[in-house]
Known about the structure:
This protein has helices spanning 18-36, 67-70, 79-90, 180-183, 190-193, 225-239, 261-272, 291-302, 309-312, 318-322, 348-354, 358-382, 402-405, 409-418, and strands spanning 44-45, 58-59, 62-66, 77-78, 119-124, 137-144, 149-156, 162-170, 198-202, 250-259, 276-282, 336-342, 389-395, 424-425.
Amino acid sequence: MTAHPQTDRRGGVAPGARTGIRAAALALVAALAAAGTGPAGAQSLDPGSLVPSVAPGSLLGTPSLSVAALTQLGAPIPLTSVLGSVAAAGSGEFPRPGSSEAPSGPLVTRDDSITSSTVREVRPLFPGSVNPDDQRAEVWTVTSASMQRTVRVEVYRAPAGVNAPNVYFLDGVGSETPSGWSTGMGWGDPALRERAVNVIAPTGAPASMWADWKTDDPVLGPNNWETFLTDELPELLEGGLPGTVDGLAHNGDWGVMGLSMGAASAVHLANTREMFGAVAGVSGAYSTTDELGYQYTRLTVAARNGEVTNMWGPRGSAEWLSHDTVANPSGLAGKTVYLSAATGVVGSSELGHFGSNEMILIDGHILEKGSYESTRALEAALGDVDEVNLRMNYMPTGIHNWPVFVTQMLPGMDHILSGLAPAAPNGRTTTGGLGEGSAGSGGSLGSTGSLGSTGSTGSSSSLGGSAGS
Length: 469
């Protein structure tokens, strides 16, 4: 289930890579078929109770193994066995849907000259666009003292005239540049552009769980993302870059939204930090200590060739326990929580987007089924927590990829905003950003492929990117 070195962002696989992938996939299908005939486990979902999927034809050239059969096995599928089979088959041979290449060397190393957290540069995300909404989107280059590196942060200012809540958006396993918010998710939705909210989307944290790591990883480098998000970045967003842009017009309230890997991290942050009053998790896995949650976490880190013990030490350590929201969700008391997941059943929407791309359909089916189970477990655990403003959305069909994710951005954001202080008029006629006079100047630090002013949220170019656990 790791991204294959010959897989592009849209999920295509180079012809030369097909042989090894096919072997791994066939091993996985065999494991699924065997699991489907066994007894139900504590962590299993009965596909027979779900809306039937639509058969796309044979799977991997084997007529007897169709995706329809894979997603409608008559008996429950114990997912922990399946995830173990993926690892045994060789996760390096199994591509993640639409994800970027797994690095073999350091993504970034510490720069000893960076000793403080500062804003170095602000540029337009959509240079040259005359769309007023696009002119509220910026790329901030900042430094992190804790990671001793620069970080690209996408900032989407609220409309002029209000002090608004700040909401982090945390991407999935790829943590792509540009972020999922600009390429496949919220900013392309005209309704979300109208919301009075500042959205902040950090990038460059692949397979990191958006966590503080115990040790710098030889491949993934230094990761102190929780410190960066809670202790370093807020002050930078408030101060802006003197002489270039003002800080964000902020009313003091914070929320956080994440998908897949980012969903687990977003809910953890809301559960452990008073800073966040509301959270939305889309297709996440929220335990780290049960078998399913452990396998999800381990495979997430392995998806970019990282070593999971560099993150929280050996399994069962205090750090692993402290990140298990299902085991202890008490920090969500009194907060606003939105959770969503699909069943993993392949439906007509998935076939319309991905056709018979077996890699995306199988991987997305397994991952979303696991997210569904974990979301159910967290919902049950929240039943013992006081005064949680909880909204759930379970979708009868859908796999772990953008066609599911994009549908959850608007309801998730609206529920977050319902739990935060509303935007307050500030009497200003501008946002204080670059859009008042600098639109079109300079580049956008690699913001290619963004939606720009098209306003489209479901284009085929954006549906395959950076989906991951």
